[in-house]
Design brief:
8-stranded parallel barrel, 336 residues, 12 helices, 39% helix, alpha/beta, TIM Barrel
């Protein structure tokens, strides 16, 4: 079955008739759920089943959520446990930080897989610098490259072990941004050699992760005219070149204010620049239609990468549930 090169959100707790028709007609590569789509476990599983059925019923699509832990956790108490932010793991000073991160990732992934998800937008591999906007902040595993690589790898491996595909973000790095790209366009003037040694390094070290999400950031040393998401030069020379990432590349949300066009215009620009998938999150159907109209059928390298990513979804393995709960409690205690 041919799918179109976009991922879309949904409006609420159940699928509306016009949403069902839209999914059936356009067959997106995936869907993404947010807090507005979440009530109970039974309801979430039913919504995923409805959307899968409407979009073709073959199960060959991305079903994702932004579930990092900390501030970015769409599935929350009372039905799902509170997970620590990424920064909590590097505060564990007894040498068990990577194991704790891995176990927490496995537990979170097990929550997701049970509901029908196969993808989450983690790990965050950005390396923040002092004075950067707090949009990354404690979502980062640390402020040094080696810590981010170590903990990012532990989390990615934990997610994969429980049948959930990781998405590394925000490639090639959001850690120097002095603005929140949800609200404005960050512009970074750092020399290329420093970017390669610092910001790009975690993504290069973990370039085997099956998916990545772009940063809506301008790097003047790479392309002063456009943010990475819509820069063919940045995607070709940095993401595919320097970093060596040949996995499935999706844009960050096309409605963020860092991008100045309409969602349809932004989708066209991102796909033309080299993104494999355009991501639209807010569930507004008219905007979704505009994005779909600009999104071609998945073919060529984009389809190859899409199929390769889905092929890495494996049956969940048994894991140390008690150890995961202990790691979660220990990590949260470090924040108290």
């Amino acid at each position: 079955m041919t799918r179109r090169a976009f991922i879309c959100g949904l409006a609420g707790h159940s699928l509306k008739r016009d949403e069902r028709s839209f999914l059936s007609q356009t067959r997106p590569a995936g869907i993404i759920l947010f807090a507005r789509n979440v009530d109970t476990p039974k309801q979430v599983a039913a919504l995923i089943d409805e959307a899968q059925d409407a979009a073709g019923g073959d199960g060959r699509m991305i079903v994702m959520v932004d579930q990092e832990g900390g501030r970015v956790q769409r599935l929350r108490e009372p039905y799902w446990p509170k997970y620590p932010p990424a920064r909590a793991f590097c505060a564990i000073d007894d040498g068990d930080s990577a194991e704790a991160a891995n176990l927490c990732a496995q537990a979170m992934a097990a929550d997701l897989a049970t509901l029908g998800f196969n993808t989450t937008a983690a790990p965050v591999l950005d390396v923040p610098i002092p004075g950067a906007d707090n949009i990354i902040g404690d979502r980062a595993y640390g402020e040094d490259v080696e810590t981010v690589i170590s903990l990012g790898r532990a989390v990615a491996d934990g997610l994969l072990a429980q049948g959930i595909l990781p998405i590394m973000k925000h490639i090639p790095g959001h850690g120097r941004a002095m603005a929140d790209s949800h609200l404005a366009l960050p512009v970074v003037h750092t020399p290329l050699a420093e970017l390669e040694a610092h910001d790009f390094a975690p993504f290069r070290a973990l370039n085997d992760i099956p998916m990545a999400m772009t940063a809506h950031v301008v790097f003047t040393a790479v392309d002063p005219a456009a943010p990475v998401t819509i820069s063919a030069k940045a995607i070709r020379e940095v993401i595919r070149g320097t970093i060596g990432f040949d996995g499935l590349l999706m844009s960050d949300d096309l409605t963020m204010r860092a991008l100045k066009g309409t969602p349809g215009e932004n989708a066209r620009a991102a796909l033309a620049a080299g993104c494999d998938l355009a991501l639209h999150c807010n569930g507004v159907l008219d905007e979704m239609r505009a994005v779909a109209a600009e999104s071609p059928a998945l073919e060529g390298d984009a389809r190859r990468r899409f199929e390769a990513a889905l092929a890495r979804v494996k049956a969940p393995r048994s894991f140390d549930v008690a150890g995961a709960e202990e790691a979660r409690a220990k990590s949260l205690a470090r924040l108290a």
